[in-house]
């Protein structure tokens, strides 16, 4: 699905990513783990096109995309849920969903958009009940569900999520992670960045640990889980939650 080779991103004298190489297989959940400042957000932003790399290649479905603008990457099937629940907070829930749909499908008929949005309302009744409410007045968990739903309306094959559990209550985190597992069961490929790795490892097939912009560990879920109690990986990366 995605091949990253020797990716490097610099912010002036700061090396945010240093020759990052990874392979993202189709229909798997991939965890990007690391503390704040490790390069997780920069990596996702570079994949989606919000940040230009200084060197390296990004191949999506066999096509190099590192020089393709953001909007074209969306149309190719890459969705990005950024950290901080970035919604149009002064617009209604319904309008946020319309924007999500039309970003990839600008020429689609409104009827088709409404049919897709009604499917979202069936899946998440809380959004249907609050469809005329301003997005900025929703709870943190409701905003997270809304922004993921808006991203899903662009019909991505590859979904990027940056710290989706940040600031959410445990019960809401469980709902979000259950949704990600459902999306995987329907064939979607997912990359999720998390500071608390134990959360991501609950559902991930493969994990990469970033430290100062470099991949320092990688492996499947069972391998990374085996490091939880070892000296080879500090608990600062993995947190205390059970996997």
TrEMBL record:
Record key words, sorted: Amino-acid transport, ATP-binding, Nucleotide-binding, Transport
Gene3D superfamilies documented for this protein: P-loop containing nucleotide triphosphate hydrolases
InterPro entries: AAA+_ATPase, ABC_transporter-like_ATP-bd, BCAA_Transport_ATP-bd_LivF, P-loop_NTPase
UniProt key word Nuclease: no
Entries under SUPFAM superfamilies matching the protein: P-loop containing nucleoside triphosphate hydrolases
Record flagged with keyword Transport: yes
GO biological-process terms attached to the record: L-amino acid transport
CDD domains: ABC_TM1139_LivF_branched
Recorded family membership: Belongs to the ABC transporter superfamily.
PANTHER family referenced in this protein's UniProt entry, alphabetically: HIGH-AFFINITY BRANCHED-CHAIN AMINO ACID TRANSPORT ATP-BINDING PROTEIN LIVF
Protein's recorded name: ABC transporter-like protein
Organism field: Jeotgalibacillus soli
Lineage summary: Bacteria, Bacillati, Bacillota, Bacilli, Bacillales
């Amino acid at each position: 699905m995605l091949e990253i080779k020797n990716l490097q991103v610099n912010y002036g004298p700061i090396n945010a990513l240093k020759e990052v190489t990874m392979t993202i297989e189709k229909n798997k959940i991939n965890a990007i783990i690391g503390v704040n400042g490790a390069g997780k957000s920069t990596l996702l932003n570079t994949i989606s096109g919000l940040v230009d790399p200084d060197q390296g290649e990004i191949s999506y479905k066999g096509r190099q995309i590192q020089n393709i603008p953001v909007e074209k990457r969306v149309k190719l099937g890459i969705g990005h849920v950024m950290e901080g629940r970035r919604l149009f907070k002064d617009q209604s829930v319904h309008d946020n969903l319309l924007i999500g749909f039309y970003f990839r499908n600008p020429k689609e008929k409104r009827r088709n958009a409404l049919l897709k949005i009604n499917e979202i309302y069936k899946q998440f009744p809380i959004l249907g009940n609050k469809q005329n409410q301003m997005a900025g007045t929703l709870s943190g968990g409701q905003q997270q569900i809304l922004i993921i739903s808006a991203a899903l309306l662009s019909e991505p094959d590859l979904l990027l999520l940056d710290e989706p559990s940040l600031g959410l209550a445990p019960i809401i985190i469980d709902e979000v992670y259950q949704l990600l597992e459902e999306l995987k069961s329907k064939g979607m490929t997912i990359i999720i960045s998390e500071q608390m790795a134990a959360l991501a490892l609950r559902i991930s097939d493969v994990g990469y640990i970033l430290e100062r912009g470099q991949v320092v560990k990688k492996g499947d879920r069972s391998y990374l889980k085996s490091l939880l109690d070892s000296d080879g990986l500090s608990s600062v990366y993995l947190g205390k939650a059970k996997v």
